[in-house]
Amino acid sequence: MIKHLLSAADLDAATATLVLDTAAEMASLAGREVKKLPALRGRTVVNLFYEDSTRTRISFEAAAKRLSADVINFSAKGSSVSKGESLKDTALTLQAMGADAVVVRHPASGAPHRLANWVEGSVVNAGDGTHEHPTQALLDAYTMRSRLGRLAGLNVAIVGDVLHSRVARSNVQLLHTLGAKVTLVAPPTLLPVGVDAWPAGTSYDLDAVVPDSDVVMMLRVQRERMNQAYFPSEREYARRYGFDVPRMRRLPGHAIVMHPGPMNRGMEIAPEVADSPRSTIVEQVANGVSVRMAVLYLLLGGKA
């Protein structure tokens, strides 16, 4: 197993499948009366979050605690970071405290890679800028495999604000590695420069892609990262790229609808779609704990 999880590109097909299989084992424990495992007793996991997060931070905390690790939650707000402490000095402080793993979310792309040079323990990228979010891609892949029974050969449409989405980047990489075919669907203004080099197709027409899709993954429109007009209006965006009930009806019978959350209901996804049986949004949150348990377990010396 690799020492760090910084990018979905770090995972070959065998390693990614090992994580998904281990997550399935972890999920099977959820029905037990005592959900804890002693696997990481005596280990320390630090959640180092420089950006706000609900799902990811709580999910990593729950995962580490279920494996009996000690957890330290470090928020940049209210810490020495607000006084100007650098990432390197924070890393050295964590190192001195004996952190076995550091789960980091940072607004700067590449920050987890820098951190990995400064600490002896494992580093897990929980989202860096608009760059990557590998554990989200793993939990999405796990959810697809759980619902549809396979990943190889699936047609996956990733729709919306690809430009600002670290989730899209990691998913494209991981799903390609695991044999799925990905199509990115977005207005031209929300596709990044160089997207032609990604292992995915592109389309500007959601309605043309829907009938052939096994999975439609809607992305949140990231208003907080937008400082100019990327589309004419929210109503126009919802009309062309929002996933509503008529579009859901044109999906194949087995197809599922995903969203990494948090959602802008009524903009990129209609409430009726988000709450429908086709939606996996609540499952994705639950699966996130199992997948992150698997990642921490494997990184910190657990055997398959």
Explain what the structure shows.
The protein is of the alpha/beta class and 304 residues long. It folds into two domains: 8-132 and 285-299, Aspartate/ornithine carbamoyltransferase (Rossmann fold, 3-Layer(aba) Sandwich); 134-281, Rossmann fold. It contains eleven helices and nine strands. Strands 7-6-5-8-9 form a five-stranded parallel beta sheet. The chain has a four-stranded parallel beta sheet with strand order 2-1-3-4, with helices on both faces. Strand 5 (155-159), helix 6 (166-177) and strand 6 (181-185) form a beta-alpha-beta unit. Helix 1 packs across helix 11 and helix 2 packs across helix 11. It is globular and about 55 Å long. The model has no long low-confidence stretch (mean pLDDT 92).
Summarize the helix and strand pattern as letters. HEHEHEHEHEHEEHEHHEHH
CATH architecture of the largest domain: 3-Layer(aba) Sandwich
Mean pLDDT score: 92
Helix content: 25-40%
Short note summarizing the structure:
Helix 2 crosses helix 11. The chain is built from eleven helices and nine strands.
